[in-house]
Write a structure and sequence with these properties.
Layout: E1 5-11, E2 15-20, E3 24-29, H1 35-51, E4 59-65, E5 68-74, H2 87-98, H3 108-118, H4 124-135, E6 142-144, E7 153-156, E8 159-162, E9 169-171, H5 173-187, H6 192-203, H7 207-211, H8 214-221, H9 229-238
Antiparallel strand pairs: 1-2, 2-3, 3-5, 4-5, 6-9, 7-8
Helix pairs in contact: 2-6, 3-4, 3-8, 5-6, 8-9
């Protein structure tokens, strides 16, 4: 690939997105020892979703650029800001993704367990209790994007496209919904209750099924962003954990 790195289009906690040629983007991970592994994992997940016919940007490869790793995909233009995409569109899209089976992806419960066990902010007693509770939760082989929120849906209301596939896994759909609910609770507070209500209406799952995953989603999230740890810990403590 010989394209020149273009203007910065978006920036997040772990990566920046730059224009790459005329119709592509390069998601360039910030320097860290784990970025090569994550770049290839995200590319594999995105390629899998693309092969399943799901609405994702076409993947073109994984590259190293100035000692950083990134993935090249089609550029998706949005007519409206991502956080203004209608909530019902997001929910219908998420339910559509969850109807797909993904037995080849990493297990959701395995992912949560490793994150809970690795985290340094919970004492061993709390970890043991959380891991025992998680082990008893139901499992499934549904496709779970596991980072599904308004900023990760681009395009238009009639042709939405899902980006950021690094966390995709297989598991129970209510767990994926609970992860979305927690993300909305932290970053889009006013949307969280409405999201839960409409998701349950669209999916047939109950609020109790979704919220049962909340302690495990919160505990696993503690290793992600240090600036959110105090808020996440407070929410976990409110649940009696």
């Amino acid at each position: 690939m010989t394209s020149v790195l273009g203007p910065l289009l978006a920036s997040g906690n772990v990566a920046e997105v730059h224009a790459w040629g005329d119709r592509q983007v390069l998601k360039l991970y910030r320097p860290a020892p784990w970025t090569k592994r994550v770049a290839f994992r995200e590319a594999a997940n995105q390629a899998t979703a693309e092969a399943m016919g799901l609405p994702v940007p076409a993947l073109h490869g994984v590259i190293a650029h100035d000692a950083r790793w990134g993935i090249v995909s089609d550029r998706i233009d949005s007519e409206v800001p991502a956080d203004s995409v209608h909530l019902q569109v997001l929910i219908e899209l998420q339910v559509r993704l969850q109807q797909s089976k993904a037995p080849f992806l990493t297990g959701l419960k395995q992912r949560l367990a490793s994150h809970i066990d690795y985290g340094a902010l919970l004492e061993p007693r709390r970890k043991r209790a959380l891991l025992a509770g998680l082990d008893a939760m139901p499992d499934d082989d549904r496709l779970c994007h596991f980072d599904f929120h308004p900023m990760n849906v681009l395009g238009t209301a009639d042709r939405p496209v899902v980006i950021d596939w690094a966390d995709a896994c297989r598991g129970a759909a209510p767990a994926d919904a609970c992860r979305s609910h927690v993300l909305l609770e932290i970053h889009f507070t006013g949307l969280a209750p409405l999201y839960l209500k409409r998701y349950c209406e669209a999916s047939g799952h109950t609020a109790a099924e979704v919220l049962a995953w909340r302690p495990y989603i919160l505990a696993a999230k503690l290793i992600e962003t240090p600036n959110e740890a105090s808020r996440v810990l407070a929410l976990l403590t409110e649940l009696g954990w």
